[in-house]
Task: structure prediction
Amino acid sequence: MTIETIYERLKKEFNDDILSLNSEANCEPSISVDSENIVNIMLFLRDEGDLKFDYLACLSGMDYKESLGVVYHLYSIAKKHRITIKVNVPKDNSIVPSISKVWRTADWHEREAYDMFGIIFEGHENLIRILNPYDWEGYPLRKDYKQPEEYHGLRVPY
Amino acid sequence: MTEKREIEIDYGQVHTERMRLNVGPQHPSTHGVLRLEVELEGEIVTDVIPHIGYLHRCFEKYCENCTYVQVVPYIDRLDYISSMSNEIPYALGIEKLLDINVSERIQAIRTILAELNRIASHQIAVATFGMDAGAFTPFLYLFRDREMILDVFERLSGGRLLYNYIRPGGLMKDIYPTFVSDALAIVKQVRETNQEVQRLLIDNKIFIERSINVGIMPPDIAINFACSGPTLRGSGVNYDVRRAEPYLLYDKFDFEVCVGKGLMGTLGDSYDRNIVRMWEMEESCKIIEQAVKFIPDASEDVRASIPKKITPKGEIYTKAENPKGELGFYIVGDGKNKPVRIKGRSPSFVNLSVLPYISRGYMIADLIIILGSIDIVLGEIDR
Result:
């Protein structure tokens, strides 16, 4: 199934929550959606008979300088098609509903995005840091991140 | 005179509690610096909490500060026992973004290298899984054979562990004259040793008893957790990136996607995940035998299509079937010589997240078997 048909299907079902179909040159086409209703959109994509996106391949946090974002790469093992969903949230209020109940693999991916970008996933059961130490300060993959001077009395840029 | 006293013990008053035990970070059977916080009731595992990040070295942050070519050596260090395979999805992704066509000969060489690396990685996986179950001898046989593969890689690239050989647009240098015959010699040796390992380890009664019906992962759980590689196929799910979205020359070859069948115990147990790796080694041998026919004798300039400047604009999610599973890179470029973002989707990271769900209710000794059957590399979990 092509991304245009999927976009039409989503538009019919959720209309205002589906923002745009991005097909810039040299980019894989993606669908931008509103973050509010992301759980229902994902449930629809997962359970609908001819879509059946059962496999969340990748979830990446993004820093677009003015805003933060989450990119979901979905794949369907049964139907062999893929799709990219994008969500944008403002930097000062970066809350995205968690989809870890839809695909449980999102659990660790969301923890990583929280750890690196400070995106809060609402409804996540255990949203703690995963790769950095639990008491680390700041979000390292943000573009404006400044390295701390020291950590527990150790100089960081050693 | 002392009085004889009755000693009364009210066993209802004996204080019992669940115990928390740390396995790792420095523990031989965690296959690296992984800490498992295990909650035990007697010998039964009631909960496992993996703590990762001990090897974290900011791969993604580092990539934003170096050029596209400089990223390649760093990608080697993700899954450090299959470095050659790691470079492939990245190189393919950059080639797609820049619209570079690579000759069939180079693609065939890449395919052979990827399959040789798959064999090397699966040999380690089977060997260390045997060690976890208490079998030491197959480990030595398999490591002896892996040496032959490392020798080939060393002659090609100069490195035994980290190669930096597959570049976006081509290869570092051309293959040496006896490469094809060396690859075929490895295939022959691997088949011989695998028969031996089959007799020594896989068909061994003790080994079977240890690994069947342990860590059962139903197919729906495996898909929901987005497991990939032998961990997913062990549960009977027929998903292999080489078949689902063919890259390199895989659509030209005849090979099977091996899936677990629940031969000895239940479908999706530790034995199935391990036997899938044994079968895949045989399939890799088949692919190598077919791929060498695509390498003509005449040499060519393998650096001809390597771009002088890599400044892609656009974004792509590129993936390949690594020995451990689906390795993906989400590459975003803005037309400058440094990437805006590279996200590595490492198979071990995703596969490990299923561990708490499949190890509850088993003995603590089985936990080691389950962890061994998932076959993780901490270099790519922590990135």
Notes: Chain B has a mean pLDDT of 87. Chain B has one domain: 60-382. The beta strands of chain B are 19-23, 26-27, 32-33, 35-41, 44-51, 166-167, 170-171, 313-321, 326-334, 341-345. The two ends of chain B are 74 Å apart (CA to CA).
